[in-house]
Amino acid sequence: MPATYDTPLGLYIGGEWLSGGGRDTHDVLNPATGAGQAALPLATIDDLDRALAAAERGFIAWRATPPEQRGAVLTKTAQLLRERADRITRIATLEQGKIQAEAKGELAAAAALLDFHAAEGQRIYGRVLPRPSGTRSMVLHQPVGPVAAFCAWNFPIMNVVRKLAPAIAAGCSIIIKPSEETAGSAVEVLRCFQDAGLPGDVAQCVFGVPDQISRHLLASPITRKLSFTGSVPVGKQLMKLAADTMMHTTMELGGHSPVLVFDDCDLDKTLDILVTHKFRNAGQVCVAPTRFHVQDGIYDRFASGFAERTRALRIGDGMDAASQMGPMANPRRPEAIAELVGDATGRGATLLAGGDRGGEGGFFFQPTVLSDVPLAARAMNEEPFGPVALLTRFGSEADAVEEANRLPFGLAAYCFTENGRRQNRLGDDIEAGMIAINTVRLSWGDSPFGGMKDSGHGSEDGPEGIAAHLVTKAVHIS
Ligand code: NAD
């Protein structure tokens, strides 16, 4: 029997679920079939004003709530998320397409992040500075205020938790607009917060026309911080809006991650982890390995090993346990990937695997490997955000680093080498917010996640993720 998408969708404002009422709706699609499966109500300007008023009230109450009480809500939310894992991950796959195993991994990581923030929110310390006897100066860190958060569809559970958890731990209120395309997962996450006892006004969740919502929320003097996960062009547009009220910003934008593979790496191990990581979530990951720069001595073996492993991947409906890669999330993505692949082969790249749509009816694109891709190819310069591996050769370490730093992006980079001194140099010289050496894992709850250059600024996760929701004050007492 086909799995059912059975979550009632609504806006969550002031502790109430709202739907109907003549609001416009958006059809949430199943990427594996292209069929509509639920109608999502879209917020009116009136709804947004109610959300702003609720967030203003919520902030006043929540900032005065003891940190251990805030932490207890986050801990309970993590527990509910784990208890409801089957239901929530099914919804995530049905609306986003990723395979069930990945949705379950995403949920587990989101629950762990909630646990981290539950504890870290209780460690917001200030400083007392020595002054002449009887006097002192203090440095205080206080919650910044109501947050407006916007996030993308690629991690429908984690992206939402990454916005809510640090804001709530720090004592802020928040209005979140997750992606309309993956609304069900967001609604389920909000229900966990609600059932864990989060007071109604602290977190609001709205959906609608993204441009209209961001303009309205960012123009309001109530909003004190913008937190965005999405593309570079939209990020730049939102930064301009945020400038008018001088609000704080955390921008987690796109990337174009280089992978430097040196002659001295453990080739089979490197190939095994890179192929799996490349095609995770059909390549729709901001830190996805994208440009594979491989040293001359192992290039041919790397390319044939990569292509062979890629051709063996099974693509299909994410609900099918046999699938190793699901469809892309929406009809825009296979369209964009087909264009980038056509451009690269037209400029002389060699197609080693995939290259076309696959599956029937849904938004599929085959896992694709292109070899000897010229630097002028569009895909070598624009974020593909899809299942395409771009392979090129390099000679020296200096050439590889120069190429890694060539683009305006600076989110993640991967290096594979057994040479310890080189590992240190690469960590120093590559311009990226996260560098993984002989591993592909760079997201841990306790370490900062974020980029530099056009990939954005500020960090999520780790103590830095909480610090990004605080303002600093100096108080001098005589
Ligand atoms: P897009 O930029 O149109 O939308 C990305 C997300 O941003 C959407 O989910 C939407 O909720 C939000 N958004 C869009 N316009 C907005 C606005 N004016 N105000 C507030 N929120 C807004 O792109 P897309 O076609 O959905 O995805 C493709 C591109 O998005 C990729 O090239 C990639 O760079 C980027 N992307 C990045 C991430 C990431 O994790 N950094 C995630 C998903 C998508």
Automatic annotation (TrEMBL):
**Keyword tRNA-binding: yes or no?**
no
Q: Which domain of life is it from?
A: Bacteria
- Give start and end of each Aldehyde dehydrogenase domain: 17-475
**Top-level EC class:** oxidoreductase
Q: Which UniProt keywords apply?
A: Oxidoreductase
> Which Pfam families does the UniProt record give?
Aldedh
**SUPFAM superfamilies for the chain:** ALDH-like
The protein's Enzyme Commission number: 1.2.1.-
* Gene Ontology molecular function: oxidoreductase activity
- Spell out the PROSITE patterns in the cross-references: ALDEHYDE_DEHYDR_CYS (PS00070)
Q: List, alphabetically, the PANTHER family matched.
A: SUCCINATE-SEMIALDEHYDE DEHYDROGENASE, MITOCHONDRIAL
Q: Which family does it belong to?
A: Belongs to the aldehyde dehydrogenase family.
The name on file for this protein is NAD-dependent succinate-semialdehyde dehydrogenase
- Origin organism is Sphingomonas aurea
Please spell out the taxonomic lineage of the organism that makes this protein: Bacteria, Pseudomonadati, Pseudomonadota, Alphaproteobacteria, Sphingomonadales
